[in-house]
Design goal:
The structure is a single chain. By secondary structure, the protein is α+β, with helices and mostly antiparallel strands. The protein has twelve helices and 14 strands. β13 and β14 (about 225) form a beta hairpin. About 45% of the residues are buried. The structure holds flavin-adenine dinucleotide (FAD).
């Protein structure tokens, strides 16, 4: 199908983008890589009057070292993020998750900020950024504010950003020396997961000293498996010990039922994939 008519704006500064958002309000939609938005427009699931293309704003792109954290600009492509040496060294979980995200073509066009703003519960980036305790810097007519990852994902395809706000960058604390693994269960390659688990683990002499675990597609938002994280601390990184801690992965979640599997099947997957992800992450 062909999208409904829209006006197209391509600001070159953040101030211009914010002014355009303020002027057009919920008649406008930001476009970054267009990998999610264009299909939505073509299917006429949304018909904004104005598209604001943020791809020409220089300050939104790139990755920088900010002391105890990395900062990833919203329009940095998945390809750039996953190949970046700083990301691989200090936030390996992000790089690992992106290796499983879509195909090379989408990873070259799609952006880190676009995927997170889209807030698809089956998206591969939500669980890793949640597990790593990222912070989101957003800007709107009222100025800048920071949103903790725990508060960013609000509901099904919904974030806590207002209609007139845009995502500027994501700040990820460094997890230098931690092991990381993203375990994704799919029926078809290069597709969204039925369930996936993001795990980052710090081991000390074969014992799990700290753990971070996030679940993809186990609820209307990505979920942090805090009970599993707590249960893992102090355990030997062995199959038997991790299996017991991983068994509670689905507790408190509300997984969907769809053609790929029902809620019980997803609960089972969550436990199995958590065990695999944690054990793989522990093999630093
Ligand atoms: C064939 C195919 C396979 C895919 N497979 C996967 C997969 O396996 N796993 C997965 O996780 N994803 C997958 N995707 C989705 C893909 O990751 C996303 O489409 C892409 O990352 C979104 O980024 P974008 O820059 O293209 O966003 P856009 O499509 O431009 O925008 C997406 C949404 O975010 C909003 N937005 C964009 N940037 C900002 C910003 N800076 N501030 C506020 N709002 C913003 C837009 O208004 C829009 O609502 C797939 C997509 C395709 C086409």
């Amino acid at each position: 199908m062909i999208p409904a008519d829209f006006d197209y704006l391509a600001p070159t500064t953040l101030d211009e983008a914010v002014a355009a958002l303020a002027e057009h309000g919920d008649d406008a939609k930001i476009i970054a890589g267009g990998q999610s938005l264009l299909p939505v427009l073509r299917m006429r699931l949304n018909a904004p009057e104005v598209l604001i293309d943020v791809g020409r704003i220089e300050g939104l792109r790139g990755i920088r070292d900010d002391g105890d954290a990395l900062v990833i600009g919203a329009t940095t492509t998945h390809h750039t993020v996953s190949g970046d040496p700083l990301v691989r060294e200090h936030a390996g979980l992000i790089a690992k998750a992106i290796e499983h995200l879509a195909d090379a073509q989408v990873r070259h066009r799609g952006t880190f900020g676009g995927a997170l703003s889209h807030a698809d519960p089956a998206g591969d980036l939500g669980a890793p950024v949640l597990a790593l305790g990222a912070e989101f810097l957003v800007v709107g007519p009222g100025g800048r504010r920071t949103i903790a990852a725990d508060d960013f994902f609000d509901d099904f395809f919904t974030t806590s950003m207002a209609d007139d706000e845009l995502l500027v960058e994501v700040r990820i604390p460094k997890y230098t020396g931690w092991g990381a693994h993203y375990e994704k269960f799919v029926r078809v390659a290069h597709q969204w997961p039925i369930v996936a688990v993001a795990a980052a683990v710090r081991t000390d002499g074969g014992t799990i000293a700290e753990a971070r675990v996030g679940l993809t597609n186990m609820d209307v938002t990505p979920v942090r498996a805090r009970a599993v994280e707590e249960a893992l601390v102090g355990l030997p990184a062995t199959d038997e010990a991790v299996r017991q801690a991983a068994a509670i992965a689905a507790d408190g979640t509300n997984p969907p039922t769809d053609l790929n599997g029902d809620a019980d099947y997803r609960r089972h997957l969550a436990a199995v994939l958590t065990r695999r992800a944690v054990l793989a992450a522990a093999e630093v």
